[in-house]
Amino acid sequence: MKRGTTPTLKINIPGIDVSDIDHIDFIFKASVSETAPAIIEKSYPDSVNYDGEVFLMPFSEEETRLFNTYSAFMDTRIVTKDGKIPASQIVKIDIRSTLFGEVENHD
């Protein structure tokens, strides 16, 4: 992911039947620590979509600028309709810098 851009992160969660999901919480932190502050939090079905194959997580330019480290860590909490929370992996995401300053609003 590059700071100052508007990417859509594609997330594949194998072995999960989407019809069994109540919601999924995604959290991004600069370090792998429960006490580290969250950089961004998103959730399915609120701010994350599912296209039938992968989850699509859009980011605004402002959101990507919140990542001011070279990497971030994403953890996922899947909550099923029957209240179970299956284990998931913490994923490291590489963050690339930009040479551009903040983009002006061109409306």
What does this structure look like?
With 107 residues, the protein is mainly beta. The protein has one domain (8-94): Sandwich (Immunoglobulin-like), CATH 2.60.40. The protein contains 1 helix and 7 strands. The chain has one helix at residues 61-65, and strands at 8-11, 21-29, 38-44, 49-50, 55-58, 71-80, 91-94. A 4-stranded antiparallel beta sheet has the order 3-2-6-7, with no helix packed on it. Strands 1-5-4 form a 3-stranded antiparallel beta sheet, with no helix packed on it. A hairpin with an 8-residue loop joins strand 2 and strand 3 (38-44). The chain starts with 7 loop residues before the first strand and ends in a 13-residue tail after the last strand. The mean pLDDT is 93.
Shape: globular
Average per-residue pLDDT, rounded, comes to: 93
Which percent bin holds the helix content?
under 10%
What would you call the quaternary organization? single chain
CATH topology: Immunoglobulin-like
Sheet with the most strands: spatial strand order: 3-2-6-7
Count of discrete domains: 1
SSE sequence, one letter per element: EEEEEHEE
Distance between the termini: 25 Å
Report on the biggest sheet: 4 strands, antiparallel
Low-confidence stretches: none
Number of strands: 7
Counting H and I runs of at least 4 residues, what is the number of helices?
Answer: 1
CATH class: Mainly Beta
**Structural class of the helix and strand makeup?**
mainly beta
Strand content: 35-45%
Rg for CA atoms: 15 Å
Which CATH architecture is right? Sandwich
